[in-house]
Each structure stands twice: as structure tokens, then as C-alpha cells.
Write a structure and sequence with these properties.
The chain is an alpha/beta fold. It has one domain: NAD(P)-binding Rossmann-like Domain (Rossmann fold, 3-Layer(aba) Sandwich). Helices cover 44% and strands 16% of the residues. The chain has a 7-stranded parallel beta sheet with strand order 3-2-1-4-5-6-7, with helices on both faces. It is globular and about 45 Å long. It starts with 8 loop residues before the first strand and ends in an 8-residue tail after the last strand. Bound molecules: nicotinamide-adenine-dinucleotide. Nicotinamide-adenine-dinucleotide binds next to helix 1.
């Protein structure tokens, strides 16, 4: 396997489990020098970091981060710079998928989802871009969702809106950083089997490929966007959904 991430340091939020754990593994398998596993669930993040480090030899550290707390995000990037001295790659994957009914979606519940899925990702982009501009190099991948494309499936209004906001913000960041050696793209996964979706009763009905997605179906596309193979792409939103929704 190509070691295309040799010498590269990554911060991945939400990487204790699911799509982003596999993304961390994928980058480590391809030679990443170091990966910061940032997650609300610190115990799980620690176990994930150890597991990936043991399996690949990449240096993996865990950092307890609640992306809805600006101070946690500042601390995450300060810690990463202290330990790694660079941030070449950021993957914004920390997310929640509420299924709150419209009539129950009050201001507090709306803000909770937005503060994690959208504001948290924005503040991570802001920290990373500051570092990446100085490096004159960076790759950012924001995990949006097919929910934004189709107006939600089982998720609440706030979920699709947060992911649509993130896909839109991705384009603006991309324009603002295109001269600085930085690319910023988004990805819209379809139905992927993780803790987020496992008990939601999703089936393969309506998926042309005839199966639900696995984290590796998504992590390899994130790895492509985090690599130099995608160096002339910025502000793009890629769909990874087994053919369930196709954009023009
Ligand atoms: N699974 C799917 O079908 C699917 C589809 C489209 C988009 N996505 C998106 O992919 C990303 C990864 O989701 P997943 O399916 O791997 O789910 P997951 O639940 O396995 O992973 C999400 C991770 O985010 C962490 N997290 C939650 N709140 C946090 C916070 N405030 N601060 C830091 N970390 C926090 C969780 O602890 C968890 O480890 C999410 O952004 C999700 O919205 C998933």
C-alpha cells in the first residue's frame, strides 16, 4: 500500500469510533506520522489510539474534546502543536444525529445539534486554517451527510440543516484558502453502519448497490481528499452512498 501520508500529522474529531476511527486507521496504514484522536468519549478515544498505534506504528494520541466547547477546541490544537508541531490534515467528523420531532425541536435542542455539527466544525477549521496558512499546506475534510442533499431521512430538521451549513461553509473556506496550499472539501455519506445508525431500523431497500455502507466505504474517500491525489480539488462535496442519491 502506498505510504502517501508519510510525514503527515492529522487531527480527526469524532475518531473514537465509527467512520472516523476507520479514517484514522486508513491514514495510519498509509504512513501518517501522527494522528490526534479527538473525541468526547475519552476512554474510547484512548483505546482507539492504542489499537491503531499497535496495528500500524503511527503515533496516535487521544485528546478529550467536546467540540461544542470553544475552549476545548483551542486546547486540542495547542496540544497537537505541542506534541506534533504541525497539522497537515483535519477531518471534522464529530457529530450527533438527533431524531427529535419538529414540534419538540426547541431553541435548546436546535442549538445543541448546531453547536456540535456546525459551530464545532467551524471552530476546528478556523484553528487548523491558521496553522495551515503558516505551513502553506493543508487538507481539510468536513463530513456532511446525504441528509442535507435529500432533506433528511430519519434525522431531525436540525441535523440536515447543520450538514447543509457545513457543506456551504466548506465552499467559502475553500475560496478563502485556495492561494495558501490548502484544500477543503466535504463528503456526504449515505447510510453507513455505525453506532449512530445501528438501531435506527435502516435497511438496504432503495440502495442500488443492495447493501448498507461500511466505515471503510467512506474512510478511503476521505483519505483521497486528505491526500495529494486530490490536490486540484477544493470546495467539492462528494457523495458516498451506494447510488442512493446521485447529484449532477
Ligand atoms: N453513519 C452514517 O450513516 C452517517 C451518514 C452521514 C453522515 N454521517 C456523519 O459522519 C460522522 C461520523 O459519524 P458515525 O456514523 O461514525 O457515528 P459515531 O456515532 O460512530 O461517531 C461519532 C463520534 O463523534 C463523537 N462525538 C459526539 N459528540 C461529540 C462532541 N460534542 N465532541 C466531540 N466528539 C463528539 C462521538 O463520541 C463518536 O465517537 C458524523 O458527523 C455523522 O453525522 C454519518
Amino acid at each position: 500500500m502506498s505510504k502517501c501520508f508519510k510525514g503527515k500529522y492529522a487531527v480527526i474529531t469524532g475518531a473514537a469510533g465509527g467512520i472516523c476511527k476507520d479514517t484514522a486507521l486508513c491514514l495510519a496504514e498509509r504512513g501518517a506520522a501522527g494522528i490526534m484522536i479527538a473525541d468526547l468519549n475519552y476512554e474510547k478515544a484512548l483505546a482507539t489510539a492504542q489499537e491503531i498505534e499497535d496495528a500500524t506504528g503511527s503515533r496516535c494520541l487521544a485528546f478529550a474534546t467536546d467540540v461544542s466547547k470553544p475552549a476545548d477546541i483551542a486546547a486540542l490544537f495547542a496540544f497537537t502543536m505541542e506534541k506534533f508541531g504541525a497539522v497537515h490534515i483535519l477531518v471534522n467528523g464529530a457529530g450527533v444525529c438527533p431524531t427529535t420531532k419538529l414540534e419538540d425541536l426547541d431553541a435548546e435542542k436546535w442549538d445543541w445539534c448546531m453547536n456540535i455539527n456546525l459551530r464545532g466544525a467551524h471552530l476546528c477549521c478556523r484553528e487548523a486554517i491558521r496553522i495551515m496558512k503558516e505551513q502553506k499546506y493543508g487538507r481539510i475534510v468536513n463530513i456532511a451527510s446525504m441528509s442535507y442533499r435529500v432533506g433528511g431521512i430519519a434525522a431531525s430538521v436540525s441535523y440536515g440543516a447543520s450538514k447543509g451549513g457545513l457543506a456551504s461553509a466548506t465552499k467559502t473556506y475553500a475560496k478563502l484558502t485556495a492561494q495558501d496550499g490548502i484544500t477543503i472539501n466535504a463528503i456526504c455519506p449515505g447510510l453507513i453502519m455505525t453506532d449512530m445508525t445501528r438501531n435506527n431500523g435502516y435497511s438496504a431497500d432503495g440502495i442500488p448497490m443492495g447493501r448498507l455502507g461500511e466505515p471503510r466505504d467512506v474512510s478511503t474517500v476521505i483519505a483521497f481528499l486528505a491526500s495529494d491525489d486530490s490536490r486540484y480539488m477544493t470546495g467539492c462535496t462528494l457523495d458516498v452512498n451506494g447510488g442512493m442519491y446521485m447529484t449532477m
